[in-house]
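Lecture notes, structural biology module. Today: joint structure prediction for complexes of two components.
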Amino acid sequence: MLDNFAARWLPALETEMRAVLAGDDRATPLHYGMIHYHMGWVDSHFQPVTLLAGKRLRPLLCLMACQAVGGDPAQALPAAAAVEILHNFSLVHDDIEDGDLTRRHRPTLWSVWGVPQAINAGDAMFALAFAALQRLSRTQVAAAQQLAALQLFTDTAVALTEGQHLDMHFEQRRQVSVAEYLRMIEGKTAALIGASVALGGLVGGDSMYAPLRRFGQSLGLAFQIQDDLLGIWGDPAVTGKAAGNDILRRKKSLPLLHALNDPLCGEALHALLWSDRLTDADLPEALRLLEQAGARTYATDQMRRFYTASQQALQEALGAEAPASLLWATANWLMQRQS
Amino acid sequence: MLDNFAARWLPALETEMRAVLAGDDRATPLHYGMIHYHMGWVDSHFQPVTLLAGKRLRPLLCLMACQAVGGDPAQALPAAAAVEILHNFSLVHDDIEDGDLTRRHRPTLWSVWGVPQAINAGDAMFALAFAALQRLSRTQVAAAQQLAALQLFTDTAVALTEGQHLDMHFEQRRQVSVAEYLRMIEGKTAALIGASVALGGLVGGDSMYAPLRRFGQSLGLAFQIQDDLLGIWGDPAVTGKAAGNDILRRKKSLPLLHALNDPLCGEALHALLWSDRLTDADLPEALRLLEQAGARTYATDQMRRFYTASQQALQEALGAEAPASLLWATANWLMQRQS
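The predicted structure, tokenised, for the full assembly:
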């Protein structure tokens, strides 16, 4: 069912995104070439490639939400393209900010063309995400809906930068509370997933899109906590990440924060992680302390709590039809993932 | 006359910008503090300061254009705030991309808080520029005008990134044509000045804002070429920049490009500038070659040509009233500047 929907709409989504990101100026082929590289359409010599692009999760949720409220997903294609381009803008800048060398098994944009051009290519994608959304005027969306969509989109873009700010800021700090962590992932992950669903609902004719938005936000929180769990206890053969990678990077994920804030083993974990030489050999002890603090159970409970909240919000939005909807099935499928 | 207009409207503009950039989240004071620092409102310890902020040229042109077509400048304040915030976003990222340590006699944002946070603070300002423009809904601007304004603003943001891309790209290249240079400053400087004037006209009720936009674009081109001239032949005591600074930095300004493309002295100038050791002692010879190629005369002619084009566009927009308008006087004042 999900595969059918994706097979039906992903080609049109790619066409829409390619139209927005084409560039219409012969003076700037390199500028747009870098963007096409990041989107997974060309290699670093700008030759066409067929890659496994991202999951396109956000645009698919947008199109599903439009359909769920009785709209035609074709009308929401500009909004779906906009959320995916905004998501990709944030990845380009995150990769610079985090110094990450690879993404989706390829060198990151900045590691090929340097930081200055990569910052600027990201800025272009940011602006072009707004350009994508403005193409709602071509799919007969009323002016009031267009303005509401632009407002929601802008608020989301601001929230993304707040979340990213907190994420970087927390790296400098010794202690971060669970409340602070939740505020961070609300901006960094949940806001855009919430907006993706809300925009689909809005375009589909549901002017009361608040419950749909809450469905997306809660799902986003559950999704991020699941990511944290997989980053520590996921099977390296499935996730593709080295075992204990997030622990060795001292990533302030929810399980780690819970254990660091634990009155019994927080100090010991802190001393272990911030010792001068943290190596693979310290992983068993770190995992033992996490276990002792009940970190895995705690984070799993939190994930389930947000997942349940997302189901409740979807029932509020769609009523009795919710459990039979594609959005419900997609949320369920996401919660089953092992990578 | 200009001073009266600025004195009348700058306080309201600052109030509008402060409202947009306030931040409403107790979790992120540092995020918004960095933005307030860049705007010249606080020092690096977030204590209020009274600094000479930027010229606020773009928002003033926006408000003047609104008045020139018979509108109330108060209605255009959100658009004026938007163009100034967008301009400041681009400065934050340009400073990172160029590695500049100071701006307006203070350390640049990135040099105080590091590149990752500075990229992200710039991104926030980019998003907040859109938020500023959306406050046109509060000043009773009709939905169709709001959408037209957003479209124009988005196109301008894309053009900014294209201009910045070319500027950085040209630094890597040996030869750049005058046509390529003009294309670059169209994006980097002229697009936003054109949009500032056009947005004022649009909000003021002039749905045919194309001549106003051309006025701003041509003025922007003249302004940038004047900047190039001052960067080489300006009086260091007035400009505040060291003599020959742009030559020593090998900045691909219009006079330099003209001389580098000159069949007689281009080679010699190239050899001089790209020798291993370029010092102050080489300045007289560089200036002699520029003189021999007629670079100063050429650039001055080009500047006047665009200034004349801007006057013609303004007459097209405002008719016989153009020469008595504040926009005309402001353009004239700008062309007299020595720094």
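Point to remember: The two ends of chain B are 21 Å apart (CA to CA).
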